[in-house]
Every structure is written in structure tokens, then in C-alpha cells.
Amino acid sequence: MDLVNWSNAYLRPSSSQRFLFAFMDVQSDAYATEGAKRAEDAVFPVQLGHFTFVIAASLFTHLAADAARNYLKQARTACASGARMIASLHIEPADGKSAGDTYRADYTREFFAELADEADWTLNAMLGELAGQEALLFTAR
Asked: What is the CATH architecture of 46-141?
């Protein structure tokens, strides 16, 4: 929580208020076993339809499919139509759809694009490698 407060105190003003940092007390088998909410039920604490750009760097690499589905919907609700999202993924699943757990979740591009499509995101481009993961660019419909 201290880093969230620091980021809002120092980074947000230097971005002309364009950045927002928020804390969500979400349960994770890997990182926060005592979290108050399951990732599948989390609601983003943001103004609806406000954002025009979202970065999800290494976020979906720690979410099982149901949680990823919810986070994609939450991100879409937080964004205006036409907003962009960059998401990075591990794309080496063993079963061809999704694999792993909250320590490391893997998706095929196609399966993740289907999840995003259900949440009204359109896959626009594959951007290549980002910190050892594949970066994808989406637009909110």
C-alpha cells in the first residue's frame, strides 16, 4: 500500500494526473492467500469509461482463465470506446488453450484473443517480445 500511495503522490502529479495507482485486496494462491476477494470477483476501483490507455505488463501471466476473463471485462468497463490496451503473455501452454496457475499462466494468442473478444476488446497487433513475454495490442469496442 505504501508504494501505491507514493506512486499517487509523486508519479501521478508528474503525469498531469494521467496515471492512477490503486490497491485491490485480491486473493492469489501464489502471492496473497489472505486476500479479501477472489480475482474472478474483483471490481476495479476506478471511474467507468474514463481511461484511454491501459498497460497490463505481466498481469495475465498470473491469472487463471476465469480471473483473466474478469480482469479483461473490468478493464473494458474502465475504458472509453477506442481505448488501447497492451497486454503481455506467456504463450507456451501445454494443452493448447491455457495452462498453469497463478505462479505462471500460459495462453495461446488465439485463446487469449477469444477471452478479450468476449470482453469487447479487439486484437489489433502482435507487438513482439516484452520482457520475455509476447505483447499484444487491443482496442476497446
From this structure: 3-Layer(aba) Sandwich (3.40)
- Using CA atoms of 112, 98, 65, 137 in order, give the dihedral in degrees to the nearest 10: -20
Statement: residue 99 has pLDDT above 90:
no
Residue 61 gets which letter from DSSP?
G
* Closest alpha carbon to 65 in 25, 14, 118: 118
Contacts of 108-114 spanning 24+ positions with Cβ under 8 A: 109/134, 109/136, 111/65, 112/60, 112/68, 112/87, 112/136
Question: What's the pTM value of the predicted model, to 2 decimals?
Answer: 0.89
Task: Give me the residue spans of the domains in the chain.
Answer: 1-38, 46-141
Extract the C-alpha cell encoding 130.
516484452
Q: For residues 138 and 81, is the Cβ–Cβ distance under 8 A?
A: no
Beta bridge partners of 86: 55, 137
